[in-house]
Specification:
By secondary structure, the chain is α+β, with helices and mostly antiparallel strands. The protein has helices spanning 42-64, 103-114, 117-121, and strands at 4-10, 13-18, 23-28, 73-81, 87-97, 130-134.
């Protein structure tokens, strides 16, 4: 179990402390939702979690295949919707893999990406396309 403690600082800003490491993360409401947009919003963190989870599990799979994925980049485009309620509508993921791979290696990484824990934890109403650009 991991504990994260979040304290409201006022003016739509929160400080979150990752208890095991002591790392502090600040969130701020986005400009389009009454905030200053001065830091990651909570929904930005969801997009960040998806992209970093995909890269992490791909890295684990690559290690087992003795492949170095250094330089692989994930870009997540988050789109909000307002109806029926304000929520994340789309998390479009693009993955640039700068390493030459064979088809079986590519397929293993695709399967790994779409099965990352964050992807599997998010509501199925969120549209989450994943596009790969291979070297």
């Amino acid at each position: 179990m991991v504990q994260i403690t979040i304290v409201y600082q006022g003016e739509l800003r929160c400080n979150a402390v990752h208890e095991p490491s002591g790392t502090v993360l600040i969130t701020d409401a986005p400009k389009d939702n009454h905030g200053l947009g001065a830091s990651f919003s909570p929904t930005d963190l969801v997009a960040t979690a998806l992209g970093s989870c995909i890269l992490t599990v791909m890295g684990i799979a690559a290690q087992t295949m003795r492949i170095d994925l250094s330089g692989t980049k994930v870009v997540v485009h988050k789109e909000m919707i307002v109806k029926p309620v304000r929520r994340i509508g789309t998390l479009a993921v693009t993955i640039d893999v700068p390493v030459k791979l064979d088809e079986s290696q590519k397929q293993k990484l695709i399967e790994t990406a779409i099965n990352c824990p964050v992807h599997k934890s998010l509501h199925p109403d969120i549209h989450m396309p994943i596009d790969f650009n291979w070297a």
